[in-house]
Amino acid sequence: MKLDLSMTNVLATRRAAQSHIEHLRLESPFHPRLAALSQQNDWYSWAGYKAPHSLWDEEMEYFAIRSQTAVFDISPMVKYRIEGPDAEAFCNRLTLRNVAKLKPGKVHYTAWCDDEGHVLDDGTLFRLSATRFRLCCQERHLPWLLDSVIGFDVTVREETEEIAGLAVQGPTSCAVLKDAGLAGIEMMKPFDIRVFPFGAGEVTVSRTGFTGDLGYELFVEAELALALWDHLFEAGQLRGIRAIGYTALNRARIETGFIVANADFIAAEHAVRADRVRMPDEIGLDWMVDFDKPHFNGRRAIERARREGTLKHVLVGLEIEGNVPAEHAIVYHRKTKEAGIVTAGIWSPTGKRNIAIASLERPFGTKIVDDLWVEIYAMRELRYQKLMKRAKIVERPFVKLARRTATPPGDF
Q1: Given this model, what pLDDT does residue 21 score?
Q2: Which fold does the domain 274-394 belong to in CATH?
Q3: What distance in Å separates the CA atoms of residue 174 and residue 410, rounded to the nearest whole number?
Q4: Chain centroid, CA 338 distance in Å
Q5: Which residue ranges does the record assign to the GCVT N-terminal domain (predicted)?
Q6: CA proximity to 403, closest of 264, 207, 265
Q7: Average pLDDT over residues 17-38
């Protein structure tokens, strides 16, 4: 029998390709528990990690956030350790907010820009001690950070793989953590950080989250991840603790009006076209910019844009008539002139209204705020139907829950 080498090579190539697809993404320290719970087998790639869109039912996962305790794996979130005598000065030079005001044991939301004032990313900066910080963000920035560190007595390294993270969110989240033995957690205020003993190590807890609800984020060494997961789920069994995927989390974050890099704005390092980048004022982050602190990346460009009135975009919240989500719909003025695009949109189950975040081209959204419309294409019986729906600019958050900031939280 004559062997067809060409066919053999083709089959070998196909098998190798299939293996590559199966093992393309990294698995977080919590992946064994997520895989065991997954009924959908619906995964996506988050910073190179295999992460679930949904585990069991995206609708019910959303309601787990709003009515009980939802657990979301944030281990793929990029994490940098910044430490040394000049750590505060370095972070102050890098980011928009005044880091000198950030006390040890606190965290704040911030962003950072390139020298042209274009936003590279946003994230959270944890001040673990006077000279030690953790920066958490969406994108990887190690080359940028290492270039920026020149002249500072500080070290920067990525610790994404070393540190596992869980977002524990929802009205019963504090009660679950108390039942898990985190004594005194009910006295933590928003953006507080506390360290609790756990097993042979410790767990760092911050009162933060991406849901606009009562919630906490837990960070632990990767070796203790599964033990932490099992401990939490045992403690939360009577209060309905459930694991969730990104689809549910995304709905909650839109209700809160939070933005996502490369969804609601294009990070400067990812922008292919020069007109796609955004300055802080163009994505609702103008409140972060602190001109009273020492020089920071992008300062002169941001000052110049404000002074000369060259800002081109604005990010707004929209309420849209009807109940058809308008994600990625074009926004028009008087139904004819293109004014911008919807970057995120849902029917809000909690707010009971059709909401969206939209990027508009000025003067729309600033001087021109009336007679706005969105063009939605809805699938109706195998045919797209064009819907022109009226939109009005509204404040964010679309949904505001008192329990998010209540201290101590109510025992739901």
Answers
A1: 46
A2: Elongation Factor Tu (Ef-tu); domain 3 (2.40.30)
A3: 9
A4: 28
A5: 39-293
A6: 207
A7: 78
pLDDT of residue 11: 45
Give the tens place of pLDDT for each residue, 78-135: 999 999 999 999 999 999 999 999 999 999 999 999 999 999 999 999 999 999 999 9
Contact 401, 213 (CB under 8 A): yes
- Residues 328 and 374: their CA atoms lie apart, in Å, by 10
Query: Of 12-21, 144-153, 396-405, which gets the smallest average pLDDT?
Result: 12-21
Instruction: Look up the CATH architecture of domain 78-158.
Output: 2-Layer Sandwich (3.30)
Q: Give residue 209's identity as a one-letter amino acid code.
A: G
CB 351 within 8 A of CB 257: no
pLDDT at 351: 97
Average pLDDT value for residue range 162-190:
97
**Domain coordinates in residue numbering, the chain:** 24-76+162-256, 78-158, 274-394
Asked whether the whole model's pTM tops 0.70, one would answer: yes
What letter represents residue 202's amino acid? E
Q: Give me the pLDDT at residue 273, please.
A: 87
CATH of domain 24-76+162-256: 3.30.1360.120
* pLDDT at res. 22: 52
321 is in an annotated binding site: no
